[in-house]
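Researcher: Structure prediction, please.
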Amino acid sequence: MDKPENLKLNQIVFPKIGKIYYSSQKRELIFIYKEIFENREYIQHGIELKPGNIVFDIGAHNGLFTLFVNKECDNDVTIFAFEPLKSNYQILEKNLSLYGLNKRNNIKLFNLGLTHTEGPKEATFSYSKRWTGTATMKSDFLQEKIMLAKRNPDLIMKLVKQKHPIMYILSLPLSPIRSWIISKFADFHISRMFQVQCKLTTLSNICREYSIPRIDLLKIDVEGAELDVLRGIEEEDWPRIKQIVMEIHYVENLRDEIKKLLHSKGFNRIEVVEAEWSKISMSEYIFYMYARR
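Model: Predicted structure follows.
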């Protein structure tokens, strides 16, 4: 798994933002834009954003959620945005600079991932150059993706039909070829992952370093490492957190573990909703979790 070639930037204009830079597939960025700006997935089920808020954006990617938060709070917000991949971080910086947010003292960017209190100082992240929002430091999470994909052959064949129509037509009358395609298609897309070393810290380290009085919204999108981030919050920092919203990919027992942890920390209003777009590309099951005190 070699590193990708030098970063090549593309541009797209969105109606509710303006110009945005990206390096992955165009449809990935369109999908994220719709998720955040049109469907407003991160501020449902009682989650609120108000002027004067302090927001942590964990897994900031290209900066769309950071831009969304700034707009929702009428430019009156403090944001701590974390993105571990250097290539994504460079685009994050560039996108925020388009709108002058990089020069504001209340918008702080970190080329870091977050982990648990006993975690390492750095970790290997795997990601797809075509889908740069899929970066994960959980190798078992990638294996889970492969297994889920292989358990949903109809979805894989739908993708083959879109991407390789001739192969799809050839496979229809020949079940052995169909089975081979299903297996190889899943393995191929997972195998085309790059690896890069990224630095890590904990949420509580940031709270201490910047004397954070409160976190009005903690947003987490970290591809299977949700518990690692939460376990990087020390006991004295939990009361500072007012609301949490996170995207959770299917990993056995993960949702239940997170709900149990959040309940123990005083979050008594928790909603878990399967994303409408859940059954996508590699047949993942994806949920949003909304937690309030």
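Model: Confidence is low (pLDDT under 50) at residues 1-5, 279-283.
Researcher: Thanks, that helps.
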